[in-house]
Design brief:
This protein has 148 residues and is of the alpha+beta class. The chain contains three helices and eight strands.
């Protein structure tokens, strides 16, 4: 399940809702990851552009991988501006066994940072500035990427 929001994420609401939705599935582990916008470099927020068709395709691949392990993955991400100290990214793995969930959330978050089609901008004053020095080029993204 992939959710996109046009604002910062309501962490307690999302985590509680996901927990409640998955209770009947008899999972033994629920491992969430919450990404929070840090205050650095004078930013007031981060801003995100999302290419939804490619993100949904990327996420579907991860859903398939999770299903093969008897697990389920959920993800929420913001589009647009997210202020400092708020959340822009939540992911969670549900699985019968904790080891599967712990390993899977680590792999998922690392791949998300490297390959999800989401572009990050610093908000400095009223300007969006591409955060090139903290971004990872997406393999095969042509002009937006660089060789690895």
């Amino acid at each position: 399940m992939l959710e996109l929001a046009s604002t910062e994420l309501d962490v307690p609401e999302i985590l509680t809702r996901w927990y409640t939705l998955e209770l009947q599935n008899n999972f033994g582990a629920y491992i969430p990851f919450v990404g929070i916008v840090r205050e650095e470099g004078g930013i007031s927020a981060l801003s995100f552009d999302v290419y939804e068709p490619l993100l949904r395709s990327w996420f579907d691949t991860w859903q398939t991988r999770a299903k093969e392990k008897g697990a389920k993955i959920r993800m929420a991400h913001s589009k647009g501006d997210v202020r400092v100290h708020a959340s822009s990214f939540i992911a969670a793995v549900f699985s019968p066994k904790r080891r599967v969930a712990l390993e899977f959330i680590d792999e998922f978050v690392e791949d998300f940072k490297a390959n999800a089609p989401i572009w990050k901008y610093d908000v400095l004053g009223n300007k969006r500035v591409y955060a090139k020095d903290r971004s990872t080029p997406i393999k095969g993204s042509g002009i937006l990427g660089k060789s690895r």
